[in-house]
Design brief:
502 residues, alpha+beta
C-alpha cells in the first residue's frame, strides 16, 4: 500500500493533494496527479476509504475512473452499500467484497467491541463531515484553522476573497501539510498574484515574521506589474554583462532575463530553441542551453567589435569554443540529460548515470567521466575552487539523479564514495554558489520540497511552494530563486538557525 487517504470531507482536488503527498510527488490538480502517475510505470496501490462521506463525490468518481485507466495502479475503494456513486464504479466490473456478509465478521469479538465503544459504532446514514465556519477573508483566522476545511470552503466559495482563494488553491498541497503557522503564511503569500488585495500581503507578511525565510518577490501566472516571465523550466543566475539578472527558460525554449532585485523584464535571447533541460551562464555573459533532445547550444555574449591586429587575433577559437565543441561532439553519441558550467569547466550527464567534465586543455578537451547514479542524471551544478593564491584549481560538481541521490565530485580527485543527500524521490534541480554565508547548495525534489544547505554555517532550511518545482538557482547575494510552471519565487534567508521539517 503506497497511499491511504480517507475521503470523508474530501473533494477531488484535496484528495489528489493527499495522494500526491503520500507518493512523494507534486500535483496541483487531479489532472496533474494523473499525468504524473501515467509517466511512472511502477506498480502503485492506493486505498480510498469513506467514499460515501466525501464532500465532492462526482469529482472523486471522475478521479477514480481516471486512475483505473492506468494499468499499473491498483485501487481499493470503500463505501456504503447502495451509495449512488458506488453503482457508477460497479460498471467497471471491479472485484467486490460485501463486508455485511457474515463470513467477514467475528460476531463474538464485534459484540465485545461494541459494548466497550458504544459511541464509535458507525452510522449507516452518515452524512459528509461539516466544515467549521472560517473567515476566508482573514489570513490570521484561516492560517491557524484546519487547512483541509479551509481548502473545501475555498473550493465551494464563488468569491475571489481578494485573491486569497486563487492563491490557496494554487499552493494547497503545501498549505495542507503539518507546519508552523508562519511557514503556512509564507507559502500563501508567495502564491499571491499582483491582483490581490495588498492588505492581504501585508497581513501575511506579519504572520510569517517568525519564518527562517523572507519573501524578496514573487511573480505568478497572470501578473502584469511586472509581467510574469512564463513557466520556468530552467534557471540560471546571469554573470558577466548579465550580472544582476536571472535567466528564465520557458517550455518553448525562450530564455528571458529578469532583474534579480524585482523580476522586472530586461529582454530575452534572440533565438528560441527546443524545450530546455538546463541553462548556464559563462563569466563573460555567454549563455549555454541544453535542450530536451540532449543537444548543447551556445548564445555568445555581445562583445565590442575589434579592429586592426586585435580583429586578426580575436578570430581564433576561444577556450570556451573548444569546450563547447568537445561537449557538443560528445553529446552527438550520448544525448545529455543535465548540464552545468563554471568559468573553467563544462559538465554534462546522461541517462546511464554518468557525468562527463570537460576541462581546459591546449588540445581538444577530453572528458573526465565518472558513473555516479543508478539511472538518469537529472541535475548538475558546479562551483569553482581556488588554490592558496586565489587561482582556479578545480571544479566541485554536484549531481542529482532519478535514484534520489545527490553526489559530490571534485574533478581533480575521485568522487565521494557515498551520496551527500538521499531521499525517496527524484532530484529535479540543483544550484551551488559561493554566497555571503559561504558555500550553499540548493536542491529541489520531485515532491516539491526545496532544500537550502548552507554548509559553512551548518544550517538547513526548507521550503515547499505547493507547486511542482522545475528549477532552482542561487544568486551571488545568497537569494534562492524557485521556478515552477505557475510562479517564480525569490527568497532570502533570515537567520542561521536550521529549519526542521514537520
Amino acid at each position: 500500500m503506497h497511499s491511504f487517504v480517507p475521503l470523508s470531507g474530501q473533494t477531488a482536488r484535496t484528495a489528489a493533494w493527499a495522494i500526491a503527498e503520500h507518493l512523494s510527488i507534486a500535483a496541483r490538480t487531479p489532472g496533474e496527479l494523473i499525468q504524473t502517475l501515467a509517466a511512472d510505470p511502477r506498480r502503485t496501490v492506493i486505498v480510498l476509504p469513506d467514499f460515501h462521506a466525501a464532500d465532492g463525490p462526482d469529482g472523486l468518481t471522475e478521479l477514480i475512473l481516471a486512475l483505473l485507466e492506468l494499468d499499473h495502479v491498483r485501487l481499493i475503494v470503500e463505501t456504503r452499500s447502495g451509495h449512488p456513486q458506488a453503482r457508477t464504479l460497479a460498471t467497471c466490473s471491479p472485484a467486490q467484497m460485501d463486508l455485511d456478509e457474515a463470513q467477514w465478521t467475528d460476531s463474538v469479538r464485534y459484540a465485545a467491541w461494541t459494548a466497550e465503544h458504544p459511541d464509535d459504532i458507525p452510522d449507516e446514514h452518515e452524512a459528509p463531515r461539516a466544515h467549521p465556519n472560517v473567515d476566508l477573508n482573514d489570513p490570521s483566522a484561516f492560517c491557524t484553522a484546519d487547512p483541509w476545511s479551509v481548502s473545501a470552503l475555498y473550493e465551494h466559495s464563488h468569491d475571489l476573497h481578494g485573491g486569497l482563494r486563487a492563491a490557496w488553491l494554487r499552493a494547497g498541497q503545501s498549505l495542507t501539510r503539518e507546519q508552523d503557522h508562519a511557514d503556512r503564511a509564507l507559502v500563501l503569500r508567495a502564491a499571491l498574484g499582483d491582483d490581490a488585495d495588498p492588505r492581504h500581503a501585508q497581513s501575511l507578511a506579519e504572520l510569517h515574521a517568525g519564518s527562517t525565510w523572507e519573501l524578496a518577490w514573487t511573480r505568478v501566472r497572470g501578473d502584469i506589474r511586472p509581467p510574469w516571465p512564463g513557466p520556468a523550466r530552467a534557471l540560471a543566475a546571469g554573470r558577466g554583462q548579465r550580472a544582476g539578472t536571472i535567466l528564465v527558460a520557458d517550455h518553448m525554449g525562450t530564455v528571458r532575463a529578469v532583474n534579480e532585485a524585482d523580476a522586472a523584464a530586461l529582454g530575452r535571447l534572440p533565438q528560441a530553441k527546443a524545450q530546455p533541460r538546463a541553462i548556464a551562464s559563462w563569466p563573460d555573459g555567454t549563455v549555454l542551453v541544453l535542450d530536451n533532445h540532449g543537444h548543447l547550444h551556445c548564445h555568445k555574449a555581445t562583445q565590442p567589435a575589434s579592429t586592426g591586429l586585435h580583429a586578426l587575433f580575436d578570430d581564433q577559437p576561444t577556450p570556451l569554443d573548444h569546450l563547447v565543441q568537445a561537449a557538443s561532439d560528445h553529446l552527438k553519441d550520448t544525448p545529455g540529460t543535465a548540464m552545468t558550467a563554471t568559468g573553467q569547466t563544462i559538465a554534462v550527464a546522461d541517462a546511464s548515470g554518468a557525468v562527463h567534465a570537460f576541462l581546459p586543455s591546449a588540445e581538444t578537451p577530453v572528458p573526465r567521466t565518472s558513473r555516479l547514479h543508478d539511472g538518469t542524471v537529472t541535475a548538475l551544478t558546479a562551483v569553482e575552487l581556488t588554490d592558496a593564491d586565489g587561482q582556479p584549481s578545480s571544479a566541485l560538481l554536484y549531481s542529482g539523479g532519478a535514484d534520489g541521490h545527490v553526489r559530490a565530485w571534485r574533478t581533480d580527485t575521485a568522487p565521494l564514495a557515498s551520496p551527500i543527500i538521499s531521499r525517496p524521490c527524484a532530484v529535479t534541480s540543483l544550484s551551488a554558489a559561493h554566497t555571503p554565508c559561504g558555500l550553499v547548495l540548493a536542491v529541489s525534489w520531485a515532491d516539491a520540497l526545496v532544500e537550502h544547505h548552507a554548509f559553512d554555517a551548518g544550517a538547513l532550511r526548507r521550503f515547499v511552494p505547493g507547486l511542482p518545482v522545475q528549477a532552482v538557482t542561487l544568486t551571488a547575494a545568497g537569494h534562492l530563486v524557485i521556478g515552477t510552471d505557475q510562479a517564480l519565487i525569490c527568497l532570502r534567508p533570515t537567520s542561521d538557525k536550521p529549519q526542521q521539517l514537520a
